[in-house]
Design brief:
By secondary structure, the protein is mainly β. The chain has one domain: Jelly Rolls (Sandwich). Helix content is 9%, strand content 42%. The strands form three sheets. Strands 3, 5, 6, 8, 9 and 11 form a six-stranded antiparallel sheet that branches. A hairpin with a 2-residue loop joins strand 8 and strand 9. It is elongated.
């Protein structure tokens, strides 16, 4: 079956495209299809967590925390449109995202205490990803996936809510993480 003829590009009189235009029209579009927006972050240094409070995880405080971020959406410092310790949805990449958050805390004491992994969207608690009751005498982890709709310019942050004031562990296999991937538009 014959395919329709592609539309002829409209170029206003006195203007001609430059190489950057072709990159924007073609290369960037195909790059998005072959490599959707993604973030993989892992907190490798200890961070103090305040008890009974939502603590924003400081991914990127140590070199090597950001394992993958091809669109450069992660920021450790606040800008005019994005707070510190957040991932901002890039232009042209709006849609549904799946965010997996793993929260770990050090020993919360001799009594059982709750630990929550949560997601913040645009400065507001979006949803708990997972929560557990910590056992006494050891480090504890909670993990879960959250689906979130994002428009270009929206941002997300990983949150950890421990029952007691503790620090995150630095033991391999017990590091807080956040993984974000584009699912659909």
């Amino acid at each position: 079956m014959p395919q329709p003829v592609p539309a002829v590009p409209h170029i206003p009189a006195g203007w001609s495209p430059v190489q950057a235009d072709f990159g924007l029209w073609v290369t960037d579009s195909f790059s998005f299809l072959s490599q959707a927006p993604v973030l993989r972050a892992q907190l490798q240094s200890a961070q103090s967590l305040t008890g009974n409070a939502l603590n924003i995880v400081h991914f990127g405080a140590t070199a090597g925390d950001i394992l993958e971020d091809p669109y450069g959406g992660w920021s450790t410092t606040a800008t005019g449109s994005q707070p510190a310790w957040s991932w901002k949805c890039p232009a042209g990449c709006g849609g549904w995202y799946e965010v997996t958050i793993t929260a770990f805390s050090g020993n919360q004491g001799s009594t059982a205490a709750q630990l929550v992994a949560a997601l913040d969207l645009n400065g507001t608690l979006w949803q708990y990803g997972g929560d557990v009751w910590a056992v006494s005498g050891g480090n504890t982890g909670a993990s879960g996936a959250v689906q979130v709709p994002m428009l270009p310019g929206d941002y997300v942050q990983a949150l950890i809510l421990p029952a007691n004031t503790v620090s995150t562990p630095t033991t391999a296999g017990q590091l807080p993480t956040m993984e974000l991937t584009w699912v659909s538009s």
